[in-house]
Amino acid sequence: MNTPLLVSKKHTELLRLLKLRPSYYLLHRRLCAGPNPQPPYPPQQEDESKITQTVQLLLETPHQEWSCSQPLQSLLFTSPPPSPCFFFKITRSLPSYCQAFNFFKHLQQSFPAEDTHFLSYPFEAILQQAGRELNAGSRLFELYQASKDWKIPLTVSAAVLLIRYFGRLEMVDKSILIFNELDPPLKTTHVRNVLIDDLLRDGRVEYALQVLDEMLQPISNVPPDDVTGDIIFHGLVKRDRKGVNLTEEEIIKLVLQLGRHGVFPNTIWLTRLVSKLCRLGKFNQACNLLHELLRLQAPLVAPPFNALLTGLGRSRDVKGMIAVLAEMKESDIKPDVVTYGILINQLCKLLSIDDAMEVFNKISEESGSDGHSIEADVVIYNTLIDGLCKVGRVEEGLQLMERMKSAQGLVPDTITYTCLIDGFCKAGEIERGKELIDKMIEDGVLSNASLNIFVDVMCRHGRINSAIELFNDMQGKGLKGNAVTYTTLITAFCDVDNFDKAIDLFDQMLRSECSADVTVCHNLIYCLCKTGQMDDADSVLSKFKQAGIGLDSVCYNALVNGFVKRNDVYKAYEIVKEMEEVGVKPDSVTYDTLIAYFFRNGNSSLALRVMKQMIKKGFEPSITRYEALMLAYCLKGKSKVALKLFNNLSSVSKNPLKTITYNILIESLCKDNEVKVALSLMEDMKAKGVKPDNTTYNAMFKGLKEKNLLEDGMVLMDDMIEHSWPPDNTTMEILTEWLSAAGELEKLKSFQQGNKVSLPGPHKMTAR
């Protein structure tokens, strides 16, 4: 759906679609299962005094004597008989499960055996009592099993209690069992809602959707209600929900299925879903979802459409935004201040400021329609002011700020002033920027944070002296600045190599008792070391130590590198020693710097000593550093020392070494007449999957020629043929001289033609 930048025709369409009357329609829904429905027993008014009197008699009389108590019997079994609600309330009012159960058994013995349905209501109260017990799970299930033996039918409320209790006790299998054994008339929407809630909490998403699917059938006599929707929508978005996660497409399908039964998600949930779809780039699905909900006459308001407009704006899909606005207008969904803000922000990003201003003016025109007012907020004003300043229309931005204050009584914030000051700095009108800062002081809204922003703006535009003047002026007016202010200024002066001024500011910062951070040290020391001003760098280090500011390895490494470049290795060692004393451990950069210095100065033995110390400390030198040291020893004819380095590198390196690393040592070994060791190294090289190149073969041919190991030379020639490695000019020069002297020119010719030349049968080079 991506569309190029706005064109004027599309702007006109956007503005036309905004001619709507603003109003709100707020939709609130619960996100929980909701209360139980009214109980099915007769809604007659019970005599509360009679219930209280009966409970008192039950508590005063031992339960074995209840049948003999005439006063009790006359209260319980009067003519006409009390309602089921009477017995329900008495059972629930007894203080313990045991007493309630005894009372229930008394009723069971007193009523005719065929009149068990009358006991359903006191049995429901028994379940409530049992649910408060410590062993509630086992007791409730025992009661449920007993109700089947006693042929006591469950009420809807009792079924809900059992399913909910077992769900909260994480005994969802029992909830499912009870639901499956209920008579069809008891499997009401409410009962199903409670079961679905339990299933979702337990992560049984697929099972929950199966129960829901029965409710969603066209001829279902238990259709979903608003509570069903709240349970489903809440369950699907809960982040820590266990079980199968539905795809966005499956969620949309479910939303629309519920919508066909008049059950719709609340505004907050729907807005989140639309936002998620937009973040995933699924704009078509989001548009279709809202369109279908409107078709189903869902009571939608602006926020979900705002979420869609935000997503389309980020992808610069103006055509899509126009379509959404048209849908809102056709469905009489009124834009709110957020809608306008999204459009203005997008137009400003595209630098279509005139169109953004036209949208802004529409807010004032539409304000007051239908008795509802929409007013631009500070965010919208700041967006417009920033857009005007970015296209060089700073004066208009300033006028808009005045309109903001006078017309709507809004107070400009730091962002408002920052946009304007940034605009004036870009235009080279520094004084106008300072006037605004003075205005902030008059209004009492200038703070150190604001000052830091303005100093940074001026420094970024190369107005460092103006930033200093501003800082000094603010100090005269009581605004002292903080570490951030100094850091910004010091960094700016370091960037232009004005270290004297940077150091002056650094001293001023310490005198003002600002707590300097490591960033200042990094900038100062790095820049001073880079330009070779090591005495100043050392002085800065001393001042930091005096101020009690701890440095990190980055600062120390910069000093080590600086002194090494000045060939002051003793001072570099002092820095390393100081690092260790203050608890900052030298790292691989520290050691590598010293190794490189010793290597460049031809002191390979000292470089090796530092490398050994580095390895001992647990740091691995770079392969490049190993190669440099190996080369240094090879040049001195110390190939055996280089070989030790090579073996050490092989043991610590996690990856196979490169051909060039092998070549350094092979060439040196051959020059030192260690040809057989070189042959062994070449075999190791191939065994580890490192391919030889012309440099490798030529070094070996030279060494074998010096030792006149002709048979090994021919095996090596066959090796080149086998690996299809073409000989170069150096190879042919060495072999021509050697084989012609040995009278083997025919073999040389055969080699040139790509044929093997050694004797038949398996032959290996004679490395031992």
Automatic annotation (TrEMBL):
A Pfam family hit: PPR
PROSITE patterns given in the database record: PPR
Keyword set includes rRNA-binding: no
Placement of PPR repeats on the sequence: 301-335, 336-366, 377-407, 413-447, 482-516, 517-551, 552-586, 587-621, 658-692, 693-727
UniProt keyword annotations, A-Z: Repeat
InterPro entries in alphabetical order: PPR_rpt, TPR-like_helical_dom_sf
Statement: the UniProt record of this protein carries the keyword Protein transport: no
Family, similarity comment: Belongs to the PPR family. P subfamily.
NCBIfam families per UniProt: PPR
The protein's name in its UniProt record: Pentatricopeptide repeat-containing protein
Organism per entry: Hibiscus sabdariffa
